[in-house]
Give the backbone structure.
Amino acid sequence: MVDNITKTLDNFILFINSNWKSFNRNLDDLKFRDDFQKKDITDNWFQFNWELYVELQVCKAGEFLVEYGDGAECSDNGRVTYVNSKPSHLVKCKGKDKSDLVLDYISNKNIKIDDKEFYKFVSFNGRFFDESAPFEYSLLLDDYGENYLVKNKDIAFFLGHV
């Protein structure tokens, strides 16, 4: 892992939290779209803004991030822009304190997160997580596709190579 990109990700969280209500209201007004189409539109919205607000800030020209969450549904590789590009970087996390142990709210156990990959931001009501504001949690994945849920305030984000 090379660059600490926490400030950039904090700005992205601020953006999606600030715009979620307006975006969701617009989505609800789409009378001729079913729930599957609305999910695709939501994935496209997240991915486009991920590329605009995060990727352009942390990647050099010709470098690209792994897609945000499920990625966009408008292209084969999950991207909205540069649809023929391959990811060169991903977002990894570390605990903000020295121990690198962070509470996983799915298992309710402290876990080591330096081997986990960031997947997307979510909210959590104590029982379930979902894509809605406030986006105060990060969903992480391990190499086996296992989910982990951690509070954003407990972690720092870093740019890593694919």
Remarks:
- The mean pLDDT is 94.
- The chain has one domain: 6-161.
- Helices lie at 6-28, 35-58.
- The longest helix spans residues 35-58.
